[in-house]
Amino acid sequence: MDLRNRQITVGEILDRPDARALLQKRFPLVFKKQFSPSAKTVTLDQLLALVGGFLPQKMVADTLRDLERL
Predict the structure, then answer these.
(1) Distance in Å from the first CA to the final CA of the chain
(2) Which of 30, 36, 42, 52 gives the lowest tally of CB atoms within 10 Å of its CB?
(3) pLDDT tens-digit readout, 30-54
(4) Degrees (nearest 5) of the Cα angle 67, 26, 32?
């Protein structure tokens, strides 16, 4: 999956069933809920800036790597 230098939107990621499944598995409390339309316009870079400090760096790096492999 092309993350476009982390400029891909959350909505674009969640539109792919394989990517959605990966995120739901890694972050079940966040990605099992329905997102509002405005939340789907947030870029991956913006999301990481908001929550990255609360997550282990290895978990973030592993998730980004696995998304890129899709």
Answers:
(1) 5
(2) 36
(3) 877 777 788 889 999 999 999 878 9
(4) 105
- The pTM assigned to this predicted structure is 0.87
CA distance 68 to 64: 6
Residue-range domain boundaries for the chain: 4-69
Residue percentage of the chain with pLDDT more than 90 = 71
Cα–Cα dist 26/37, whole Å: 22
3-state secondary structure the chain: CCCHHHCCEHHHHHCCHHHHHHHHHHCHHHHCCCCCCCHHHCEHHHHHHHHHHHCCHHHHHHHHHHHHHC
d(CA 8, CA 51): 16
